Amino acid sequence: MSEAEADNKADQRSGAVSRRRPMYYGGDARPMYYGGSARPMYYGGGGSYGGAYDAMYGGSGGGAGQEEESVVGSITLMRLVRVCLQRWVTIAVFVIIGLIAAFAFYRMSPTVYEAVSVFEMMMLQTSVMKVQGISDGDRSGSVEEVVNTRLAMLRSRQFFLSVIAKYRELHPSAKWDTEDLVEVLKKSQQTLVKRSRLIQVSARSTDSQLAADLANVYVEAADELMAKQNLDNAKSASALLSNQLEAAVRARDVVDQGLLAFRREHLVDLMRGQAVIANESAKKTNLEILSLQGKVTEAELMCAILQAINVNDHPENFLGKLPETAPRYREIADAFKDMLKTEAEKNALLIRYTKEHPDVQIKEKELEMFTAQFADAVSRALETSIAIRDLMKQEMQLLQPRYENMMKEISELELKIATAESQVNQMIRSLEEHDKACRDLQQRIREVGYIMDENSAMIKPVEPALPPQNPVLPQPLIIFSAGPFLAILLGILFVLILDHLEDKVVGIADIEQRIRLKPLAILPHVRRKKREQIARMVAEDKFSQFAEAIATLRNLLDSPRYAEMSKVLLSVSTQPGEGKTITSCSLAISYALSGQKTLLIDFDMRRPRIARIFSKASTDFTSLPHTLAKADPALFPSLPTKSDVPNLDLVCSKSSSEISPSSLMGSGAIVEFFKWARENYDRVIVDSPPFGVVGDVMTLSSLVDSVMIMCCPNRTRFNPLKHAARHLTEAGAQVIGVVVNDVDFARHRLFDKENYHYKYAYQYGSKYGYAEGGKSAKRSLKPATAVGSAATRALADEEEAAGTLPTAAPEADVDVKDMFDASMVDDDE
Q1: pLDDT above 70 covers what percent of the chain?
Q2: Is the peptide bond before 720 cis (omega within 30 degrees of 0)?
Q3: Are 736 and 47 in contact (CB under 8 A)?
Q4: List of residues 6+ apart from 138 with CB closer than 8 A
Q5: Residues with Cβ within 8 Å of residue 302, at least 6 apart in sequence
Q6: Residues of the chain with pLDDT > 90: what percent?
Q7: Which residue in 63, 349, 734, 747 is a FRET match for 766, CA 20 to 30 A apart?
Q8: CA distance 407 to 400
């Protein structure tokens, strides 16, 4: 099968599983706990494994995690603790070397003395130097900025030469070279004390007297330099300030004359008076307009009421709303009272008489008369109100244009006043600025005179330097602390590199991060059990931790993600002793106990083990290699042998010096055999020889559905594991993950120790075997409470008799600690 066909086959299987994946496996396209699309994140790009190994072996796969590992590997807290505990002797050696190096450095370092003098940097003449053109423009910032600027001047080589000249002037008998003095001054430090103007000058030299002398001379030279600069600046400032004062006085006179001429021309005060008078007139006119508007509104209201009284049949409803100020109000009220009185008398007569009675007729005529009088009074009042309203409207129409004209004139007048006042204020401000400039210049000229008279300096010595008694270098505390500390860092780096170069798997994180494979299960270590007992523990001790771990692996393989790719499953390892045979037997028993018809095949034809594990004599079964050598598919049904576990059949092998397993792997009979096994069994578990030792695994991996690789902490190496996964993938195999075996949870949480050690060697005649390291001793440890399965726990094999199956040697009484010590010795060898 080509690599492309293998990739397509893997994609089809992954897609089929994804379409049937239930909700708790992460949806249709992306399982929640794998982080990938259809394949787990551990497998990277193309194929089930290609992305990670394309990055490791220079391919072009696009999987995640293709970054190259550093020389120290991945650094985690748990790994640091583990490596430091394992290799503390190496770190201790580095610490000793660090102490020796620190002692040598301390002895070889020259003795250096430091003398410190203190001076204050005064800034009393700050206002003098704010004139453009003066060289002391650095005084415009904060105290710290000004002092730092001055210190930069005091660190120049030219100043150092002036310090040396001053030193030779004060100490003519000194025999120090100029370059030596310059070197000492270069190493000197000038430090500004926080929140002050104090400067500390520290000079370091191998001679204590020289250090003190240079520190004091430095202050004196700085004092002379600052005094000279102040005097030069004062002279320059005096001439410049005088010229600036004359120019400022001339400019002030020009502004003053311009202000006086402007006020005479525009008469601003007169315009202000006119504006006040106009505002009073406009205010009165506006009040008149508002009064007329109120009267017009009142007249319109009276007209509306009179109209309502005139046209309504019930005038009493509106008569109460008529104000007393209405025209003919008294006449209307009297007529209305007479009308009401007459109507009342009429109604009283109608109670006693009919309408035709003479008295009733008389009252009817009187009522008509009074009603006509009332209507006539209302009509005349309405006409009067309308006339008054029209008259007030005419008066208001006459006042409105007059008011608008007055407001327009006031606006124009105020605009002229504002423009004139703005120009006047501007000229006044300019005049004030010129006055202030003249006063400032006069004050600066006086200060310059004080400087020239007093010759004041900016440097004031505070504390002279004394010859130091104790050296500052070398510092034993720092040297003897830094040496071991750096040695510890280098030692940790060294042991991390060694641990990385040892290339051993020590924990789950190594498998996931460095190899990019998924750990399928973790099988615990089992104590004081023979190989055969461990292999059958799933059937004989169903409630053990080992049986639970195998059941967990079986349930994972039965899950929708792995169900279709685990019907025919191959268990491989990179070296003998990693527990593939025991894991294969245990997994097959677990499948059989779950009710699935299972076939366990022993394809390790050079060193078969399954027959011995299930106590099958050589006469109890038909040998697989002998049957395949006949190339007759009709003989395949005779291969399975019933075991004492329900639903579990065995296909066992016998080693033979006449039949070559490599030749059988290249024949077509093995393809037909796997086809027959698929048709007759629910699950087929294949036990194979170690990968890399022989080439059988490459052929078997292309015939099965998936491959799981065995791994033992502190025994399995990274490179063989990578090599196996890569080549199996290239051969078309579906590598689904790693089974971590022989994990002692009770003692080592990070899988960083080996409780047992095995040696493996090939011999002629197609034989290879195990030998357990450790020295015999009486057991003194109690049984562990957290035991598990170490599918790799092997006992010493006795020499195999020719033509017969090997038998297990009885377990020796061995102390666990002694066995661990012996295994570490074998690792070093």
Answers
A1: 77
A2: no
A3: no
A4: 145, 146, 149, 150
A5: 322, 323, 326, 327, 385
A6: 22
A7: 734
A8: 11
